[in-house]
Amino acid sequence: RSAGVARARAHARSPAAMPAAAPRDASTPPASSYMDNGVRLPSLVVFDLDNCCWTPEMYELCAGSPFRYVDSENTCECSGGRRGRGETVRLLGNVAEIWGCLRNKAGLPLGAYAGDAAGKFADAVIDPERTRICIASCCDEPAWARELLGMFRVVELQTNGGGAPAKAYGETMAEAAAISQIRYGNKREHHREIQRASGGVDFRDMIFFDDNGGHIRDVGGMGVTAVGGVYG
């Protein structure tokens, strides 16, 4: 895996890579951000994967694919023989809940998901048709990442007969993501491809989360709101 480590440490600079995943629906995308209850909401929320949405990073796995989904814990275990025994990929922090909030199938305000932490944004309602989840990843094993996205589930709030909303596992992360760029290359190019696939959403109407400071500087220089130092 030494070659994989070297590629990951260099942030996979080679642009030659695997083809990007096709967007779920890019035919009539939102052209700009929108307002709800006085809060400006982004059109695209873009996530890195390794060390931002899950851990460990793909290059750190000894065996990798195939993975086995553990529904009781929403985790994925490597099932590739002895070398992968005991290796588990987990979502970080509240990633599953955050994705469920962005998908907002229940049509609830942010306060229902985040409580007091929502602060002045508590009454804003995310419209999942106008705020879409995207992925920009240059992880070392794109095929493994896609396999995991098809297994991990987001946490949704469901309303039952007017009672308090209850948490439940819903769609997979692959189903939740509208546009995915998972391949070797620079994150600036990832965002250019995301922009093209979205039908031309302005970079100023995107927000990007990544744990790598270099990626944050690169993408932030394009006009995207780039948030670094995240770990779940």
Properties at a glance:
232 residues; four-stranded antiparallel β-sheet; 7 helices; 13 strands
Based on DSSP secondary structure assignment, what is the total number of beta strands?
13
The strand order across the widest sheet is 11-8-3-12-13
Poorly predicted runs are 1-31
- Number of helices, where a helix is a run of at least 4 consecutive DSSP H or I residues: 7
The overall pLDDT average reads 84
Please tell me how large the radius of gyration is: 18 Å
Structural class: alpha/beta
Order of helices and strands: HEEEEEEEHHEHEEHEHEHE
Major sheet size, sense and barrel closure = 5 strands, parallel
Tell me the fraction of residues in β-strands, as a range. 15-25%
Descriptive account of the structure:
The protein is an alpha/beta fold and 232 residues long. The protein contains seven helices and 13 strands. It has helices at 2-9, 95-103, 110-114, 142-149, 173-176, 187-198, 213-220; strands spanning 34-36, 39-41, 44-47, 54-55, 67-70, 75-78, 88-91, 132-137, 153-158, 166-172, 177-182, 206-209, 225-227. The strands form four sheets. Strands 11-8-3-12-13 form a five-stranded parallel beta sheet, with helices on both faces. A four-stranded antiparallel beta sheet has the order 4-7-6-5, with helices on one face. A hairpin with a 4-residue loop joins strand 5 and strand 6 (75-78). The chain is globular and about 50 Å long. It starts with a helix and ends in a 5-residue tail after the last strand.
